[in-house]
TrEMBL record:
It comes from Rhodoferax ferrireducens. Residues 4-229 form the AB hydrolase-1 domain. This is Pimeloyl-ACP methyl ester carboxylesterase. It comes from the Bacteria.
């Protein structure tokens, strides 16, 4: 079984780097690169085409959770375990809420084009971490990661998120062991949303793990706690 660690919007292997040494002692983890793909469906297809053969354990953080759900929809027979971390499952909302999200994302893209990716990230990422980590070395690491991307990649991934599929019905079909994990102070994908996912998962063996003193970037903010939860998930034992 190969763990596939799926990063989120403008994220890369840095999200997982503090826990990779411990995980890779036992499991051959793979961290995909979505390149400039502009749909969740295309990202999922790319991951499946480049993944090693055999069964997979999918761990998706933020946008990566949506990619994980789409991979499971496309090839459910290959997925032995699923972890959804600081993420969501619904399509873009209709009406004013959806238009607000669209306008907010496009404003960020405009800032990235005009002022650069780091300047955009300096504002955007402030809502992603626990308040105590603002302007910290960890915050600089997040900005470094964002700066490694380009406005073109940002635009493609925004398009993917604005046209994301609704996975609500899929949740009820999942039967593999599933970990739901969320930072206690995640303001982007709050704990209430993960509790809702738990109620929709139905017959799947599921565990909800709350990471204390963490926001949306829980794998970077609290890597030891997240790694421990993932090790239990991969082992098939309670966290």
């Amino acid at each position: 079984m190969t763990p596939i660690l799926l990063p989120g919007l403008l994220c890369d292997a840095s999200v997982w780097q503090d826990m990779l040494p411990a995980l890779q002692r036992r499991w051959p983890c793979v961290v995909p690169d979505y390149r400039a793909l502009d749909s969740i469906e295309a990202m999922a297809q790319h991951v499946l085409q480049t993944a090693p053969p055999g069964p997979l354990a999918l761990a998706g953080h933020s946008m990566g959770g949506r990619v994980a759900l789409e991979i499971l929809r496309q090839q459910p027979e290959r997925i032995q375990r699923l972890a959804l971390m600081d993420t969501g499952f619904e399509a873009l909302a209709l009406g004013a809420a959806g238009e607000k999200e669209r306008a907010g994302r496009m404003a960020l893209l405009q800032t990235a084009r005009q002022d650069g990716m780091r300047a955009m990230g300096r504002d955007w990422a402030r809502g992603m971490v626990h308040p105590s980590r603002l302007d910290s070395p960890l915050f600089d690491r997040i900005l470094d990661m964002i700066e490694r991307s380009t406005p073109e990649i940002f635009e493609a991934q925004i398009h993917a998120l604005l046209h994301r599929p609704d996975a609500a019905a899929l949740l009820g079909q999942i039967r593999c062991p599933t970990l739901l994990l969320c930072g206690r102070e995640d303001a982007w994908s709050p704990l209430a949303r993960h509790a809702q996912m738990r109620s929709l998962l139905g017959a799947a063996p599921v565990e909800l793990v709350v990471i204390e003193h963490a926001g949306h970037m829980s794998p970077m903010e609290q890597p030891d706690a997240v790694c421990q939860a993932m090790q239990h998930w991969l082992d098939g034992s309670p966290a």
